[in-house]
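Customer escalation, tier 2.

The customer says the design service returned an amino acid string that "doesn't look like it belongs to this structure." They asked us to rerun it and document both sides in this ticket. The original structure tokens are below, unchanged.
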């Protein structure tokens, strides 16, 4: 099993910043793609940002220019720097990590417990 520990959520005012962290632990040799998803009340879970093992990134249009995803492979950790936060960013944020299967033919997805981000107006 792989465990993901998320931290950094909290309550901030509009325009503020937060930095989310997600550290993976367990038995594995490498990590492929990593990303952050969020789910707001009454809405579907959506991809916020993703980063590949080579460093390529993708962002939801709603967060481009405000959020930055990064990874530290030495620490098996992915980060999400969130600046200029808006009330519509309020959601539970989930870390997702893709780890190669033991056979090497496909990946397994692992999810964090989620961390609450609340942005007040």
């Amino acid at each position: 099993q792989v465990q993901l520990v998320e931290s950094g959520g909290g309550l901030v005012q509009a325009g503020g910043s937060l930095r989310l962290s997600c550290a993976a632990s367990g038995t594995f040799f490498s990590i492929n793609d990593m990303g952050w998803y969020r789910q707001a009340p009454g809405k579907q879970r959506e991809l916020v940002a993703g980063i590949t093992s080579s460093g390529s990134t993708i962002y939801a249009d709603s967060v481009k220019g405000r959020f930055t995803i990064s990874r530290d492979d030495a620490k098996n950790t992915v980060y999400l720097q969130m600046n200029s936060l808006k009330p519509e960013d309020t959601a539970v944020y989930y870390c997702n990590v893709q780890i190669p299967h033991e056979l090497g033919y496909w990946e397994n997805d692992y999810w964090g417990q989620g961390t609450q981000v609340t942005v007040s107006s």
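Tier 2 assessment: The sequence is consistent with the input. The CA atoms of residues 58 and 77 lie 17 Å apart. The chain has a mean pLDDT of 96. Sent an explanation to the customer and offered a walkthrough call.
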